[in-house]
Structure formats: C-alpha cells, structure tokens
Amino acid sequence: MADLFNAAEYLTARRVDAGDGDRVAVHHPGGRLTYAELTDEVRRVAGALRSLGVRPEQRVLLVMPDDVELFTAILAAIWLGAVAVPSSTMLTGRELSVLVRDSRAGVVIGGEPFAAALTTAVDGAPDVHSVVLTGQSRVDTAARSLTWDEMLAASDGPVDAPYGTWDESQALWLYTSGTTGKPKGAMHRHADIRSVAETYGTQVLGIEPDDVCLSVAKLFFAYGIGNSMFFPLSVGASAVLEPSRPNPDLYSRLAEQHRATLFFAVPSFWGPMIAADLPPERFATVRRGASAGEALPARMFHGVRDRYGFEVLDGIGSTEALHIFISNRPGEVVPGSSGFPVPGYQVELRRTDGSVITGAGESGMLFISGDSICTGYWCRTDVNRLVFHGEWMRTGDQYVRGEDGSYTCLGRADDVLKVGGIWVSPSEVEVRLLEHPSLAEAVVVGLPDSDGLDKPVAFVVARDGVEAPDADELIAFCRDGLAAFKRPRAVIAVDELPKTATGKIQRFRLREQAAT
Ligand code: 3SK
Questions:
Q1: pLDDT in tens, 233-284
Q2: Which residues have any ligand 1 atom within 6 Å of their CB?
Q3: How far apart are CA 245 and CA 455, in angstroms?
Q4: Is 81 exposed, middle or buried (0-12, 13-18, 19+ CB in 10 A)?
C-alpha cells in the first residue's frame, strides 16, 4: 500500500508540528491567521463540508474572491480527500455552468459578488445538491441554499485528522480554456502540490520562512495558488490575500503595508506598474519579483529593476504543469528569455516530424516532463491523446534554445507564421514594436493576403494619453530593427486587446475581427 500523503496537512498541520504554529500564515482584509489558527479553521470548514455531504474524491467548486474563506475552503476540501475546483471569478453564469456540470461538483461555494452568475451556473445542474454563499444572502436555487455562516453552524464538528489520501489521490482541478474551445479540467494529485513547492518554490524562487508573498494573480489561477498558497505554506512563510482587482497603486501599498518580499505579477501588470511611476520606497522590502503568463519583454525587466530596484524572474508554466517549469535564476537573468529548465523538469524541443532538436538556434515545439504534470484533462480523451505522450507533455509553445542554454519563447506554435516560406515569430515583431515609445501593447497575427498567403498584421494599443503612431511610421520602425520580411504589412490601432481570463491574448479574436 502506498504511503499516505495529504497536501492540505502538509501545508498546515505539518507546519504546526514543525514549530511554526505561532507564525503568520496568511494576511487577509479582516486580519491574519497563524499556522495554528489556519489549521483549526481548515478542520472546522472541513467539518462543515462533510456535514453538507462532501465525501472523498467528490468535487467542490469554488467561485470566490481571494480571501480567507476561499483559502480555507480549498485546503478543507483537500483535507477531506475531496477535490477543490477553484474557478475563475471572471466568467459569466453560462460559462460557469459548463464547469459546474463538467466537474459534477455536488457542492458549489460562491462569493457574494458572484451570486447572480452562480444562480445561472447551478440552475438545473443535476449533481449540485448544495450552494453556499459568503455574506448574508443566499442563491435562489432548487438545491439546498445557505450562507457560509449557516454552513459552519450546521456542522457536526471539526474533522481533526486529514483523510488518508496518497500521493496519487486527486486534490485539485483547474479549468483551462486555452485560447479557444471548451474548458478542460486539468487534474492534479496531492503529490503535484508538494512537487511544485519543492522545485520552483524552493530551488528557483528560494522561498524562506521569513518571506511575505504578494501575488497579482489570484488563487483560482495555477500561477496564483502556487504564489499565495503552496510556496509560502510549504516553508512557514506568509501570504497576503487581496480580493479586489489588481492595480499598481493598490498593490504597491499592500507591498509596503505587509513588507512583501516576493512580488508576483504578469507582463500586463508590470507595464502599467512601470508607467505609473510609483514611489519606489513602497517596494523597499521586495527582494525578488516573478513573472509568468506571457513572455516578459526585456524592457519591462529593465524598467522594474531600474525604477523599483528588484529583479524579476520571468518563467513559463502552465495550468497542466501546475506552475513554472522554465525560469530565469536570481542574479543570472537573461532578459527577454524564459530562462532555464527548473530542477525536476526535462525539456525537449521537437521538430514537426517528432525528432529532437539538440543544437542551439533551431526553433521547435516545447515538450516537458516532470512530476507535477497533471494526470490529464477530466473526461477529454480526445485532447489527452494529443497533449500527453507518455511522460511528455506537448505545451503548444514554440521555443528556441540559445547558445547559453536559455529558452526563448517564439509564441504559440500555432501562431508562428510562415511568410514567404520563412518562419516569422510574432513575438519577435511584437518585441520590436514595443520598443516604440508610444506603444503600450502590440500583437501580431497572420492574416491572409489577396493570394491567401499569411502576412503579419499588427494590432497596437497606444500608451495612455498618447496617440498611436500611424501605420507607415510603425512599419518603417520595424523595418529598421528587423529583417524586412518580418515587418507587419498592416497596423491596426485598437483601444484594447481581447484576452482570456488568464490574461492571454486571444489572437483568434483578432483574426476574426480583421476578417469582418
Ligand atoms: O502561464 C504561465 O506561465 C503559468 C505559470 C504558472 C502557472 C500557470 C501558468 C498558466
């Protein structure tokens, strides 16, 4: 019989056993919890979930803002041997209903601000028997409907001991929509949580017990739950939870107030944060930044370091891998690259015929293997067969390895363009466009010309208060900095770019927009 391992116990009670009971585990808008208090709260919420009827391996779907209820509910579900399914708070009711039905969750817990979406999402969902809402109101549903406090009051008592799960037991499902298509539930084991903490968290980020983690990415993202839960709790450090939408002023104040030492964000936040020109003292305690989601342009790495005095480690991860598997290293950042494989992960670049690229300079499809990769997508055999190849996972990202061993993203494999028979990386053109002082964002997609051949077309967003330069100027600017064949053939100025819930640009929407 395999050894027992419960990831929620590992992140809470085991820290208490290790002597961290009096240390602060989490700061939240209403106060803070020590490790001892958090462990008790997890036992209490687990008791309430069990009394609602939650049993091991059943799914509990959570649509909640980053606050203490979400934090404890995720851990309590995992403690019980059930499966936590933290879901995006940015989805409409109809989008959420797909997740509710697909996951077959019996209990759905929502934050009060999402009551309307939740009402639509659970309407007629056959497996939902209880819907809980934080705050004072209840969801209007045929299922049992109660408030968070009523749920706690109806409990038969705390669950003192965690359920006897194994490394292999399911702990956490995270839905990913990718850039198109039906959302897929990436299924993670208890072991995956320990794995990301012991690889990226400890060996790259170098997280220490005195660290205070502040993440712009919320807990329902794989990136956010690692930053705000798995990494800090695995070593006895603290996390800061903030329910509201991130903006640079608020987060810089939080960094100052809580003396944050590790600051996690995404390129679409770093850009405005540099532009906001905030008082650098607010970041005085930050010793390191981390970035993921999309490639961090070199100018943003320099901008944060020059303006705010800390280094940002850019990396690439995925919901399927649970966190970052290629990352820059402290003191050795190669700006503009994703860095080097994280210990514990193997990386291969493969040609379209499947052969492995061994040299530098040739681009290929990024495949990874590592212990934290999900066991697959729930009930999606079709996609599983395309993505998971034995130990290896096809990421869908096109990468190139440099002479120094660093990996640089060339964009999604599907987005790379062949122009006149030569590969053109949209991100290379985007990086050039972003060097133009008037531009805040730029995306290049392939659009067919009158011959049906793809040509690069740029969609650009001007910086606040600045007029977008005209197309000829930007094309000439690209021609100056890039081989001529890579220049966009047209430039379209837009107010904003269409993005997924995780902030990824929806290139297919731009293509659709241009076609109409
Ligand atoms: O997009 C990423 O790079 C990422 C990083 C960590 C965890 C999850 C994701 C999607």
A1: 999 999 999 999 999 999 999 999 999 999 999 987 898 899 999 999 999 9
A2: 222-223, 292-293, 316-319, 323-324
A3: 37
A4: buried
Kind plus residue range of the DSSP H or E element containing 63: strand 59-63
324 CA distance to ligand 1 centroid (A)? 6
| Dist. CA 293 → ligand 1 center (Å) | 5
Rg, the chain, Cα only: 23
Q: How many angstroms does the Cα of residue 137 sit away from the middle of ligand 1? A: 34
Taking alpha carbons only, the member of 395, 400, 424 closest to residue 412 is: 395
Instruction: State the distance from the centre of ligand 1 to the C-alpha of 345, rounded, in angstroms.
Output: 15
Token digits of residue 286: 């930050």
pLDDT, one tens digit per residue, over 39-72 is 999 999 999 999 999 999 999 999 999 999 999 9
Tokens 């919320």 belong to 218
DSSP letter for 491, please. E
Residue linked to tokens 């794989």: 222
Contacts of 104 (CB under 8 A, 6+ apart): 59, 127
Amino acid 272: pLDDT: 87
Burial of 514 (0-12, 13-18, 19+ CB in 10 A): middle
- Which two three-digit tokens encode residue 307? 């303006």
Q: Looking at 64-209, which runs of residues are DSSP E strands?
A: 83-86, 107-110, 130-133, 144-147, 170-176, 184-189
Residue with tokens 């770019």: 497
Cα dist. 509→241, 318, 515 in Å?
33, 22, 10
How far from each other are the two terminal CA atoms of the chain, in whole angstroms? 60
Average pLDDT, whole number, for the chain? Answer: 93
Please state the atom number of ligand 1 nearest to the C-alpha of residue 322: 7
Q: Hey, whose CA ends up nearest to atom 9 of ligand 1?
A: 318
| pTM of the predicted protein model | 0.86
